[in-house]
Amino acid sequence: MVKKDKIKPYILNVAEIIYLAIFEIKKNNPELTNIEAIELFIGSEKYNKISSGKFHDEWFKDLKKNNFIDKNTKKKNIFRYF
């Protein structure tokens, strides 16, 4: 049997950050609708960091500093071309 690599593409980290933030809002406020939880996320510091581009700026700076080696997988990252 071939062992499959379970490491997700690096770019999915942003989606995971967003999902987990909304999940935490819902977990702490179960009376909120999904729409309300998303609206609260949109007003958050995480949202502002992602939407302003600061998150990606820091991400690419960190990748460049580490010779485009992913900290989690220790593999060369495809974003080395940026």
Strand content: under 5%
**How many extended strands?**
0
What would the average pLDDT be, to the nearest integer?
Answer: 84
Summing up helix and strand content along with how strands pair, one would put the structural category as mainly alpha
Poorly predicted sequence stretches spanning 5 or more consecutive residues: none
How would a crystallographer describe the biggest sheet?
A: none
Strand and helix order: HHHH
Structure annotation, total helices: 4
What's the number of domains? 1
* Radius of gyration, taken over Cα atoms and rounded to an integer in Å: 16 Å
Q: Estimate the helix proportion, in percent.
A: 55-70%
Tertiary shape: elongated
Distance between the termini: 36 Å
Descriptive notes:
Helix 1 (12-28) crosses helix 2 (34-42). The mean pLDDT is 84. The protein has one domain (12-81). The chain is 56% helix and 0% strand. The protein contains four helices and no strands. The longest helix is centred in the first third of the chain and has 17 residues, at 12-28.
